[in-house]
Amino acid sequence: MIGTPHLVNDLVVYPVSPRLAYVVERDCRIELTTTPESCTCCTFRFNFRHKPGFRCRHIAALRQVLGLP
Ligand SMILES: [Zn+2]
């Protein structure tokens, strides 16, 4: 799992440790740094202020790759 890129829907999830992954959108060149609880995308940063525990689709994809609920 770790160190291998995974395709999840339209996202490429590349876990570098059990707690950290790089996520790239297929149609976008921006590389995001994602953990099971946080993400550097603007959707997460905007929503997290209002909804603690919010999961953007990058977090959801990473949790799927890591086998987390
Ligand atoms: Zn995100």
Q: List the total number of helices.
A: 2
Structural class: alpha+beta
Average pLDDT, all residues:
93
Helix proportion: 25-40%
Give the tally of β-strands.
4
Question: Overall 3D geometry?
Answer: globular
What is the count of structural domains? 1
β-sheet strand percentage: 25-35%
Order of helices and strands: EEEEHH
* Rg over alpha carbons: 11 Å
Largest sheet: 4 strands, antiparallel
Output the strand order for the largest sheet. Answer: 1-2-3-4
Bound molecules: zinc ion
The unreliable regions are: none
Structure in words:
This is SWIM-type domain-containing protein. It is globular, with a radius of gyration of 11 Å. Strands 1-2-3-4 form a four-stranded antiparallel β-sheet, with helices on one face. Helix content is 28%, strand content 29%. The chain has one domain (6-66). By secondary structure, it is α+β, with helices and mostly antiparallel strands. Zinc ion binds at residues 32, 39, 41, 43-44, 56, 58.
Give the SSE layout.
Blueprint: E1 6-8, E2 11-17, E3 20-25, E4 31-34, H1 42-50, H2 57-66
Antiparallel strand pairs: 1-2, 2-3, 3-4
This protein binds zinc ion.
Residues 32, 39, 41, 43-44, 56, 58 line the site of zinc ion.
